[in-house]
Design goal:
590 residues; DNA polymerase, domain 1; Beta Polymerase, domain 2; TIM Barrel; 3 domains; seven-stranded parallel sheet; five-stranded mixed sheet
Length: 590
């Protein structure tokens, strides 16, 4: 059997790990940066690297030379990277967990390892409790306290994964199972379908001509690391990436009942089952039963009808008895524009043209560039001269008509520690849209951070407060501040807040979004994309917004380009700009 070529995420993860281990072992800094750079490039490729390697186009990508291509070929052909295996053998395996602690990069972990002999998370915690980290040169009491906090965060997060990672694992399984002749219906259920931000694993539901054959295929997938259980109607496995996946196979007539039972929270399923029982029927994952007979259902709405209840979308099935959803609950197609995307002008992997073209291919109607500003020097942020050069490029691109949707001038400007923005107001006035975000001094005292954000959202040039809490899911908690006061100020000033759809952020979360729209604050669902694939993350922002019961009218990026530009002008007290020029039909290629 020919092995399945590794996907870009797998390749990127191997290069990223090699970069960390090279730094951990004290290797040449240039080599460390090189491997890290290749990891970012591979993750952002628009096609599988293995395919590009085969057709000879991989080395056409900027940053990938013959040496890198040879290492990619080694992984594709052998399933291993020799250098990485050597590095793993040279480093205690427990240091991988230590590297996950917020604030401890490879350099600091190396020092802790070399100076204190710490080789695992448990040893690190014990060293902190004995104050040995505090007394290590360059660390101190505050760092030790933060490390202990980071260890606690990791312990709580252990065993969970981002919904995007679980969804990718689910799609990989479905892709394999769909090729099995015995398969009939296949669907993703569980917390992944409910769009919960972090999940423990994946639930799949299926029907089949031959349940045993489908379950055997599932347990025998080449990317399964371990079969946990296998029976006549279900099987549970752990994939190579550590994701637990369960497949339940039911008779065709039981499919929608099983999908409902395997999707909702236990409390929600119990509430609906209780209501079904009150109508003289029984609900199980083997079907909706009336006496000994299975009632055939057309969809999940029939489950709710059998209970005498209004249908509830999957994203709202956490609660036992949720309020009916609004009739105009947001759906993915409502989001018309892409706001907050990075390009090669700062730390993105693709050009303005490439990002805008991909946005158009995905069905978006407009695209707003939002590269980093100059305070983000680590991300090659734009100073005023480079801002104007980028504007020239955007003007030329729009004038050329070569991109089928409008490209707007935007920026993600840094909110400085005192609450000011890092670009002058006269320059900010030249942008169509300004997103303001905190990227530094995130450990300010709550009162100081609150005042900082209050000053920022009242700035006359800002339109959107980016990733308002600064959280990174399974990575770090958000900074401490008074969200209620900041949302009040947004409502007063007419500033929108972001629902950052990057699955590592999903910030604001559901309670924050609900609190924002209750005050009349608009929400911008933005991908914060750094490559073309990141544009697709809007789906996670929509899922989060649906969980918060947002409607189309609550969402800034659901406006068409003229309405969006008019809103941005109104925020600054200006009249709406002239409508965006309509291209002649002949130029559209329609």
């Amino acid at each position: 059997m020919v092995p399945t070529p590794p996907d870009n995420e797998t390749l990127a993860a191997l290069f990223a790990e090699a970069s960390d281990l090279l730094e951990l072992t004290g290797d040449n800094p240039h080599r460390v940066r090189s491997y890290a750079s290749v990891a970012r490039i591979l993750e952002g490729l628009p096609r599988p690297a293995a395919t590009m390697l085969a057709d000879g186009t991989l080395t056409d990508v900027k940053g990938i030379g013959e040496g890198t291509a040879a290492r990619v070929r080694e992984i594709v052909e052998t399933g291993r990277l020799g250098l990485l295996e050597e590095l793993r053998a040279a480093v205690p395996p427990g240091l991988g967990e230590v590297l996950e602690v917020e604030g401890l990069g490879p350099k600091r972990v190396r020092e802790i390892w070399q100076q204190l002999g710490v080789t695992s998370l448990a040893e690190l915690e014990y060293a902190c409790l004995e104050n040995r980290l505090r007394d290590l040169k360059g660390f101190g009491e505050k760092t030790q306290a933060n490390v202990l906090k980071g260890i606690g965060f990791l312990k709580r997060a252990r065993g969970r994964r981002l919904v995007s990672q679980a969804r990718a694992a689910a799609e990989r399984c479905l892709g394999r199972l769909q090729r099995e002749p015995a398969a009939l219906r296949l669907a993703v259920a569980g917390a992944v379908r409910r769009m919960v931000a972090t999940v423990e694993g994946v639930d799949l539901v299926a029907t089949a001509h031959d349940a045993a054959a489908l379950l055997a295929t599932f347990a025998g997938m080449t990317f399964v690391a371990k079969v946990v259980a296998q029976g006549p109607a279900s099987a549970s496995v752990v994939l190579e990436d550590g994701t637990p996946v369960t497949l339940t196979v039911v008779p065709e007539e039981a499919f929608f009942a099983a999908l409902f039972v395997r999707t909702g929270s236990p409390a929600h399923v119990a509430r609906v089952a209780e209501a079904v029982a009150a109508h003289g029927r029984t609900l199980t994952e083997r079907g909706l039963l009336e006496g000994p007979y299975v009632v055939r259902l057309e969809d999940e709405d029939d489950v709710y009808a059998a209970a005498g209840l209004a249908p509830v979308p999957p994203e709202l099935r956490d609660e036992a008895d949720p309020a009916p959803p609004p009739d105009d609950l947001l759906v993915a197609r409502d989001v018309r524009g892409v706001l907050h995307a990075h390009t090669t002008w700062s730390d993105g992997a693709f050009s303005v043209r490439e990002m805008a073209e991909r946005a158009a291919q995905l069905g978006f109607a407009w695209f707003a560039v939002c590269d980093h500003s100059m305070a983000a020097s680590y991300a090659h942020g734009l100073d005023p001269a480079r801002v104007r050069a980028q504007w020239d490029e955007i003007d030329a691109l729009n004038a050329s008509g070569e991109v089928p949707i409008p490209v707007l001038k935007g920026i993600e400007t840094d909110i400085l520690p005192d609450g000011d923005l890092d670009l002058p107001a006269d320059l900010l006035a030249g942008f169509d849209v300004v997103v303001g975000s905190v990227h530094s001094a995130m450990k300010q005292a709550p009162a100081v951070m609150t005042e900082r954000l209050l000053r920022a959202v009242r700035h006359p040039m800002i339109h959107v407060l980016g990733h308002p809490t600064g959280r990174l899911l399974l990575g770090r908690e958000g900074y401490a501040f008074d969200l209620e006061r900041v949302l009040d100020a947004c409502a007063e000033a007419g500033t929108a807040v972001e629902c950052n759809a990057n699955p590592h952020r999903l910030d604001l979360d559901e309670p924050g979004l609900a609190a924002a729209v209750a005050r009349g604050v608009k929400v911008a669902i933005d991908p914060d994309a750094h490559d073309v694939r990141g544009l697709e993350d809007v789906v996670y922002g929509v899922g989060t917004a649906r969980r918060a019961r947002l409607r189309r009218g609550d969402v800034l990026t659901a406006l068409d380009v003229d309405a969006f530009r008019a809103w941005c002008a109104r925020r600054r007290g200006l009249p709406p700009p002239a409508p965006w020029p309509t291209r002649p039909a002949a130029e559209d290629g329609a």
